[in-house]
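Progress against Task 2.4 (sequence-to-structure conversion) is shown through the following example record, which the project officer requested during the mid-term review.
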Amino acid sequence: MASLQASNFLASSSSPSKQIHAAISVPKLPSIRFSVPKVPTKSLSVELNTRDGFINTIPFQKNVTGNGIPPVQESSSASMATVQLYAILESVIDRVEMHNNVGQQRENWNALLLNSINMITLTAATMAGVTATGSAGVSVLGLKLASTLLFSAATGMLVMMNKIQPSQLVEEQRNATRLFKQLQGQIETLLAIGSPSKEEVKDAMEKVLALDKAYPLPLLGVMLEKFPESLEPAVWWPKTQTQKTNKQKHSNGKVESNGWTEELELEMRQVVEVIKRKDSEDYERLGNKALKMNKVLAASGPLLTGIAALGSAFMGPSNGPWAAIMAAVAGALASAVNTFEHGGQVGMVFEMYRNNAGFFKLVQESIESTLSESDLGERENGELFEMKVALQLGRSLSQLRDLAKKPSYSCIDGSPIDEFASKLF
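Structure tokens generated for the chain above:
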């Protein structure tokens, strides 16, 4: 058996032509493709809008060309004006919130300062009254020092409070909030009715800056003068641009273009005359009275507390009870004056008259500037303008026309007609 295996091995190894090739055949696996979802990439405008966690609500419009690729630059000025107007709208909304918050803060100032000063004044006056009684066992020196310090502190606090007039500041912030909300509505209307123009964007920007100047937020440096020489109407609108001086187009003696007629122009001029002679004059008169009253009260409060502080400083057995009586009486009067001035909010009343006078000045200037525009096509539509004026004055169209037909100084049965243009206030 062993010899047979050896012979087979020699026979296989001795034949060079026969070779054994061994190969392992592996079956081919099917190719599998994995689909990886693409991560959407944000455009530059969206990335800038959402940076730092803040989301900007300004819409960016993309102009797509014929091949589907948006251009790099804006091809339409109207779309850029829309973006700018949205930016102004966001600033206006922020200012509404700012003036509202500051107004609430300053209203708290008025209440807290009023209560604190009255408590300090009445406490010092009570101490002076106790000293004036001359009761046995009363420490005159302690009451004297305490009342003097309290009256001195009340004097300083009153000077500061009368200088800034918190109630007047609150009224300023109320009016600023209302006017910024009004501007917000105007901008939203422009965006709703169509694509705005560059002129409308410029006009909105000027209105925002005019309101910032008319109702400043800081107290130092730019605070409005609280005690001017006389009442000056508040101005919160930009200056009216110079109107054109072309001649009007007449047809058969009547102007009939863009809703304007000669009768309507005459009606608007009569309304302006009534506003000048009645509304503006009356509110300026009342505002000057409120200003004079506020000046007297603002000077009387610190003067009375100062007299009370001097009287309490001279209290003692050598001067008798008169110094203590003077301190107690002056302190009580100072508390009454302070309550009437700041509790009655005389500064707020003056600011209300000042803003009302400004409102009538705005209506007057808007009518005059519209009538001075000689190109009827450039004017606002006459019927729409008449309706706006009637709503501003709280009248219907028929009431406004009746007002124009009977000026305030005409007489019926010998008695003058005493009618104001506005029925709102």
